[in-house]
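stage 2 :: seqdesign
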């Protein structure tokens, strides 16, 4: 046995004990840190079940005010169903067989505006947004009778020209339609960004949405053997206001370098009131020949989908975050058109209510600033 080793054995034992104590203290410290971290990610459900918290995928800024501002524009067309106002006929006798072209209000591309203001809560990463979308467009359409032909009216009563029912209004030489579509959407969203993977993040949300919609179609019929120098003017209006719950999902898939593909979907059920009226005026008389109003409560479902590409970056030492997006936007308002129209049956004119949809589609460009 080595005598020198025996002489140094007490010193070795002291060093080993000191190392063990130091290692033990380091282990306790790491365990304490681990327990603290587990408390941060551990959560309980309403049913007293336990699990891990999901990380938020929201923007992490240094000393933020938790405010986000957004502004954007849409360039889109709007198509409204049941806007047929005339058809052309090759024969002024307007008898079967019918051969011609159906004329309806055209869609027109116009600009709209979107805006929102948001606030990020400290509680579990939730955020709240107030959103607004406004769009206004109008378009005109014309139907002309060819040589020896006629334009057959579809929105005017048969006996608007002669109330004695001795002469019916069946054709003219020209018809014009001026359609105007305006809507305003005001929404409230409560959502949270969820981290799903390194590249995928989602934000489900719920809230309320209030919608206003003004639809107007002004139609004129003029010329021909029956009207000569006179005209028939028709005004159709369908005004709506409603409010109801909305729900949706925003998703984002990162491509790298700040670029991402995003997809937003939204649905709502709004309950509200329609104010609809229909007037007909023959220029050969002093007063309108028809004035019919209708009111009713309806549920108008609404859906929206947006798909596009985004780019995000931070400035000022991670104190400001900017997001730029460009995509394709489509919307659908079910049953938005409730305009009235005449339905002729022999010597009696019936006024019936329509029920058709409004759809929009086009480009969307927007930007947001979080600070």
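stage 2 :: out
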């Amino acid at each position: 046995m080595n005598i020198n080793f025996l002489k140094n054995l007490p010193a070795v034992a002291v060093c080993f004990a000191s190392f063990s104590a130091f290692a033990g203290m380091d282990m306790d410290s790491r365990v304490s840190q681990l327990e603290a971290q587990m408390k941060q990610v551990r959560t309980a459900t309403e049913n007293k079940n336990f699990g891990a918290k999901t990380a938020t995928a929201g923007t992490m800024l240094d000393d933020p005010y938790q405010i986000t501002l957004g502004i954007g524009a849409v360039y889109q067309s709007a198509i409204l169903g049941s806007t047929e106002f005339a058809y052309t006929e090759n024969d002024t006798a307007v008898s079967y067989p019918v051969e011609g072209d159906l004329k309806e209000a055209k869609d027109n591309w116009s600009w709209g505006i979107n805006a929102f203001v948001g606030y990020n809560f400290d509680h579990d990463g939730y955020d709240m947004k107030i959103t607004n979308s406004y769009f206004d467009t109008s378009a005109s359409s014309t139907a002309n009778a060819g040589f020896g032909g006629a334009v057959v009216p579809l929105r005017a009563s048969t006996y608007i020209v002669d109330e004695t029912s001795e002469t019916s209004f069946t054709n003219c030489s020209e018809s014009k339609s001026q359609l105007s579509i305006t809507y305003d959407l005001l929404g409230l969203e409560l959502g949270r960004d969820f981290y799903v993977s390194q590249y995928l993040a989602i934000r489900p949300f719920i809230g309320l949405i209030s919608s206003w919609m003004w639809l107007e179609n002004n139609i004129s019929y003029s010329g021909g053997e029956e009207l000569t120098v006179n005209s028939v003017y028709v005004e159709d209006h369908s005004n709506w206001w409603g409010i109801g719950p909305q729900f949706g999902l925003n998703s984002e898939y990162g491509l790298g370098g700040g670029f991402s593909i995003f997809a937003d979907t939204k649905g709502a059920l709004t309950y509200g009131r329609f104010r609809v009226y229909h007037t007909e005026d023959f220029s050969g008389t002093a007063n309108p020949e028809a004035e019919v109003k209708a009111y009713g409560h309806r549920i108008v479902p609404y859906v929206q989908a947006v798909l596009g590409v985004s780019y995000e970056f931070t400035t000022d030492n991670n104190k400001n975050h900017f997001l730029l997006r460009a995509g394709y936007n489509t919307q659908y308002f079910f049953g938005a058109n409730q305009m009235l129209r005449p339905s002729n049956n022999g010597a009696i004119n019936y006024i019936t209510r329509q029920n058709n949809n409004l759809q929009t589609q086009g480009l969307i460009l927007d930007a947001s600033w979080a600070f």
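stage 3 :: structure notes
- The CA atoms of residues 103 and 229 lie 23 Å apart.
- The longest helix spans residues 3-41.
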